[in-house]
Amino acid sequence: MPARHTINVPATSANIGPGFDVMGLSLSLYLTVTAEVGTAAAVAAAAADADSNVSIAYEGGNAAGLPLGARANLITRTALYVLECNGVGRFPEATAVTVANRIPLGRGLGSSGAAVVAGVLLANAVGALGLTEQRMLDYCLMIEHHPDNVAAALVGGFVASYLVDVDRPGNIPVSEADEADLARREREQRAAAADRSINLPPENIGHFLRLGCSPRIRAIAIIPQFELATAKARAALPGTYKTADVVFNLQRLAVLTTALGRETPDPWLIYRAMEDKVHQPYRMHLVPGLPEILRSLNPDNTPGLLGVCLSGAGPTVLALAVDNFDAIAAKIRAIFDIQPDGGVATTYEVLHIVSEGATCVTETL
Ligand SMILES: Nc1ncnc2c1ncn2[C@@H]1O[C@H](COP(=O)(O)OP(=O)(O)O)[C@@H](O)[C@H]1O
Ligand SMILES: N[C@@H](CCOP(=O)(O)O)C(=O)O
What we know:
Elements: E1 3-14, E2 23-37, H1 40-46, E3 54-59, H2 74-85, E4 95-101, H3 111-126, H4 133-143, H5 147-155, E5 158-163, H6 176-196, E6 206-211, E7 218-224, H7 230-235, H8 243-259, H9 267-273, H10 280-283, H11 290-296, E8 305-310, E9 317-321, H12 325-337, E10 346-352, E11 359-364
Parallel strand pairs: 3-4
Antiparallel strand pairs: 1-2, 1-11, 2-4, 2-5, 5-6, 7-9, 7-10, 8-9
Helix pairs in contact: 2-3, 3-4, 3-5, 4-5, 8-9
This protein binds adenosine-5'-diphosphate and the ligand N[C@@H](CCOP(=O)(O)O)C(=O)O.
Adenosine-5'-diphosphate binds near residues 66, 108 and 115.
Enzyme class: transferase
Pathway: Amino-acid biosynthesis; L-threonine biosynthesis; L-threonine from L-aspartate: step 4/5
GO biological process, one term: threonine biosynthetic process
């Protein structure tokens, strides 16, 4: 029977200062993926790729240069991987995927994490796989190797996450019956996947906790008009750290996890708790204006401000605030404007921190 699956995935801001590869906030800016299966339009569209049965098209912005081949596009490539892991070689006959993406690419707002989450939900929907949220996270982590963006995009809100040592996966307590069932399913899937040379994710590789976040807090994203690939910004990080720098971050991160949840946020407590010595100092040269932005705004000279940080791997700057959102954005944009070589052009968004993560609605047509 023809069906339509509509998937919405929020943008995310990872790290929030000291929580490198740990913390994520999900934001009210969405990637929407619609998959029509078996409609007349889908039959016509999907005929182009008989190998995978799927066509993909983008509507609106944030799509320039994205590949449209089923095995090259991040959304359909992820979906095909999940389908193949579950013994399904391709999309259902005549699947047409349409994407509307409001998340700017390569700006530190989790566009790739959202695309991966969308791909996993897409496979789950079109393949009727019945995957649990936990298992979906496993699949996401096989592609996006750090958990902060994908965990927040999947479950929503202010999220802390960690990866287990993949050599010792599976430490979520389950009943004996569940355990036996899980082990049996995993054995069967592994045997089938080995035949097809597919690298199945281990079970329960990512764990997360949703933390409180005051409803008064808004996220102001100041978005430079240039892309910075996460891989490049990760390559700028050192291989080892000084103990004092790690302790500096751990102290702040512990405080931040609770400070944002207080009904009346304490600006200076949060401001200090958003300082970082693990990733931002090494990424300064990639984002002109960042050192000055981090140095010059504070809760005394900028009313309403709670804290400022690099969003994800950048170049977007994230300010958390309870008031004066447009004025705070203007102040940060003004610093970008005066950078050498004509300044850094920016746009900005005042976003809500959304408590709902990725969703999928299925209609039969
Ligand atoms: N909606 C999408 N559809 C297909 N590919 C996407 C989509 N969103 C992101 N990507 C891929 O992810 C890349 C950006 O990822 P990354 O460098 O991690 O930046 P970001 O901080 O935006 O996640 C894009 O260049 C593209 O290859
Ligand atoms: N912890 C990662 C987060 C990357 O987020 P993105 O939104 O820039 O993809 C990092 O800082 O590298």
